[in-house]
Amino acid sequence: MRSLRLLPNRRGVRTERSRAGIEAARRRGKHLGRPAELTPEKIAHAGKAIDSGEQSVTGMAKLLGVHRITLHKGLNRVAPGLKQWR
User: How many whole angstroms separate alpha carbon 70 and alpha carbon 85?
Assistant: First the structure.
């Protein structure tokens, strides 16, 4: 079993290598993190259905398989200030 005295030093090296890898991925244009659940097309479709009265925000969120707050955030991001989606 390895000595515990080596752990802090190795942790620092591991952290440096991880950060370097993340920076290299960003420079290559890679998206880091969780993929977006709602695409702009889904948000636009939801906005039209809600505006026409065909669906409520809650109903549309259920159809898309997301929480209604997630749908609110998406609608506000795509069309900020257009309408309060409530």
Answer: 12
DSSP 54-83: SS-HHHHHHHHTS-HHHHHHHHHHHSTTT-
Tokens of 42: 């889904």
- CA dist list (Å): 22 to 25, 30, 33, 43, 63: 5, 9, 11, 30, 35
Here the contacts of 28-37 (C-beta below 8 Å, separation 24 or greater) are 37/64, 37/65, 37/66, 37/70
36-60 residue pLDDT tens: 889 999 999 999 999 889 999 999 9
